[in-house]
Design a protein that fits this description.
CATH class of the domain at 59-114 and 165-219: Alpha Beta
CATH topology of the domain at 59-114 and 165-219: Uridine Diphospho-n-acetylenolpyruvylglucosamine Reductase, domain 3
Number of helices: 12
Distance between the termini: 52 Å
Bound molecules: iron/sulfur cluster
Number of strands: 11
CATH architecture of the domain at 59-114 and 165-219: 2-Layer Sandwich
Largest sheet: 5 strands, antiparallel
Shape: globular
Order of helices and strands: EHEHEEEHHHHHHEEHEEEEHHH
Length: about 325
């Protein structure tokens, strides 16, 4: 690990100001992803700004029935919160489906949104990876792709986005609040927050601009209906999704649906939502219309349809 300096800040304003005056600085909260990457040399910040003291660790009810989740709320606390369990169970279930108990106790809402890829080639610094080293190539293409994405793949990266929580937030139409370096704030719809890889050598993963800090995630008023998060993985816990389905299904069969494990970003489309009353095949076809599977991950097409079928059957009781 390369040497770095460290400071603690007490407010979000102090955090963005500290970042603005220190080239190469990074914010740190739970550290469950960043520290791992620093240990193997993929991330090498010159300075860490610890934001754990900024008070962004509350879940608040705000006007119009919305809920504001501070960026520092730990994953476990969010999943266990009474209002979340009652009105947004798809989010609670998505969080519980991810990582391990120890990690959920430490990981934060803001950090979970910004998880880096779990592509094995990203972690091997001897191999080319556009996400780690833009322009170097993609070792996964032509390599081991069983877990890789089949939709949202650009010309330069095919890794699936790993966060379960983000798939739950996508189906709920959450909004991400961020603070700019000058202390002003802006809101980013979750649909725009995660960025699919482009056709060029640039791999911008998130809609954040340099120096911006996530303050909170805001949930709209309750979506109602019956809510589901079903995750298919290689083992019963502590594994990333091969396919996951987050859904909010109303009594008449209409609703919303999003997928994890198949896309480079949490995957949802208007066509997928519109097909919900037509059955699993129609929904899968609508969501995966642009799929570009490879030999090793072709199975995700059928697995997606079957997982959707399971959720729709559960919704019917
Ligand atoms: Fe890197 Fe993405 Fe290719 Fe994996 S799939 S090697 S993360 S560019």
């Amino acid at each position: 690990m390369k040497a770095f300096t460290y400071e603690r800040v007490d407010t979000a304003e102090e955090a963005v100001a500290a970042n603005a005056r220190t080239p190469g600085a990074r914010f740190i909260a739970g550290g469950t992803n960043l520290l791992d990457l620093m240990k193997i040399g993929i991330e090498a910040p010159s300075h860490l700004i610890d934001v754990n003291g900024t008070g962004l660790d509350r879940i608040e009810e705000i006007e119009d029935g919305r809920v504001r989740i501070g960026a520092l709320v730990r994953n476990h606390d969010l999943a266990a919160h009474a209002r979340i369990r009652r009105d947004y169970p798809v989010l609670s279930r998505a969080i519980i489906a991810g990582a391990s108990g120890q990690l959920r106790n430490m990981a934060t809402t803001g950090g979970n949104l910004m998880q880096r890829t779990r592509c094995p080639y990203f972690y091997d610094v001897n191999l080319p990876c556009n996400k780690r080293d833009p322009g170097s190539g993609c070792a996964a293409m032509g390599g081991y792709t069983r877990r890789h994405a089949i939709v949202g793949i650009g010309g330069n990266c095919i890794c699936p986005f790993p966060s379960d929580m983000s798939v739950g937030l996508r189906v709920l139409d959450a909004v991400v609040e961020v603070m700019r370096p000058d202390g002003t704030t802006r809101s980013i719809p979750i649909a725009d927050f995660h960025q699919p890889p482009g056709a060029d050598d640039k791999v911008k993963e998130f809609a954040l601009e340099p120096g911006e800090l996530i303050l909170a995630v805001v949930l709209p008023g309750p979506a109602g209906g019956r809510q589901f998060y079903h995750k298919v993985r290689d083992r019963a816990s502590y594994a990333f999704a091969l396919v996951s389905v987050a859904a909010v299904i109303q009594a008449d069969g209409s609703g919303r649906i999003a997928l994890g494990g198949v896309g480079t970003i949490p995957w949802r489309s208007d066509a997928g939502d519109a097909a919900l009353q037509k059955g699993a095949k129609a929904v899968a076809d609508a969501l995966l219309t642009e799929a570009v599977p490879m030999d090793q991950n072709q199975y995700k097409l059928a697995l997606t349809e079957r997982t959707i079928a399971l959720v729709l059957a559960e919704a019917k009781g």
